[in-house]
From TrEMBL:
GO terms for molecular function: transition metal ion binding. InterPro entries: Fe-transptr_FeoA-like (IPR007167), FeoA_core_dom (IPR038157), Transcriptional_repressor_C (IPR008988). This is Ferrous iron transport protein A. Pfam families: FeoA. The keyword Iron applies. It comes from the Bacteria. Keywords: Iron. Residues 10-79 form the Ferrous iron transporter FeoA-like domain. Coiled coil: none annotated.
Amino acid sequence: MLGGSIASALPLSLVRGGDDVTVVRVRGNDAIKRHLANLGFVEGAGVHVVTSGGGNIIVLVKGARLGLDAKVAAHVLTA
């Protein structure tokens, strides 16, 4: 496991702007998991949080800048 156990993982929606994290797991139904995987949120992927707040989060993942709703970002567990 990267960076600790899943029990200590933090949802991406709670990561502060400016922080770098690693995806440890993606939760949700198959459609959500597939959608997030297509965006680059796979186990081991590095994510830089550009800004977080107001119910939205802007991240850099695999060279792409993406905006996510906090409800969707909550499905991505990070360490």
